[in-house]
Design brief:
single chain, seven-stranded mixed β-sheet, 7 strands, 180 residues, alpha/beta
């Protein structure tokens, strides 16, 4: 495993997926903003994934006020923005090609939603041959009928830290430990 991430993948941090008025979401957003600051200082690649729903009436369709990337994490010139239609950021996108073209073999992952797009993308990254560092405190989801947001995040942090494929694995660490 390459020890240090070489790029940051920001998954679905959109107006309609993260709510700064919620204390957990606010903390996650602050951690993502700080990671972006450090990555940009180091001039490392940042790739933004933006969910683009194909479901009629869904809020994450282009033109809907919930669809834009959240204003606290707006991409800057040179940062890639890729649109996706599934939980897997690699599925039918140029993500793999962009990372390979930049020589990236290890990505750090942050974003929304923990139990869907973040989890699926982390696992898919392994299948594509990438090492992954998941920022334990920089991903979030909505509550479930039976589980709190905090319980869902803790569960996925624990489970994903145990997933490995051959020599690639997912490391789960606090955001303060990444790109520092």
């Amino acid at each position: 495993m390459s020890e240090k991430p070489q790029a940051l993948l920001v998954i679905d941090v959109q107006v309609g997926t993260i709510y700064p008025e919620d204390p957990v979401d606010r903390s996650v957003l602050e951690n993502i903003v700080e990671l972006l600051r450090r990555v940009r200082e180091q001039r490392l690649p940042v790739v933004f994934m933006q969910h683009e729903s194909l479901q009629p009436g869904d809020t994450l369709v282009p033109g809907n006020p919930d669809w834009p990337i959240h204003p606290d994490v707006v991409p800057i010139a040179g940062e890639a923005i890729l649109h996706k239609h599934s939980s897997d950021s690699f599925h039918n996108t140029e993500l793999d090609a962009i990372l390979r073209a930049r020589g990236v073999r290890h990505i750090a992952v942050v974003g929304c939603a923990t139990d869907y797009c973040v989890d699926t993308t982390c696992r898919s990254a392994l299948s594509h041959g990438y090492d992954v560092t998941l920022a334990a405190d920089a991903h979030v989801t909505g509550p479930d009928d039976d589980l709190t947001v905090e319980a869902i995040i803790a569960h996925h942090n624990r489970i994903l830290a145990q997933v490995a494929i051959e020599d690639a694995r997912i490391r789960v660490v606090r955001s303060a430990e990444i790109f520092s």
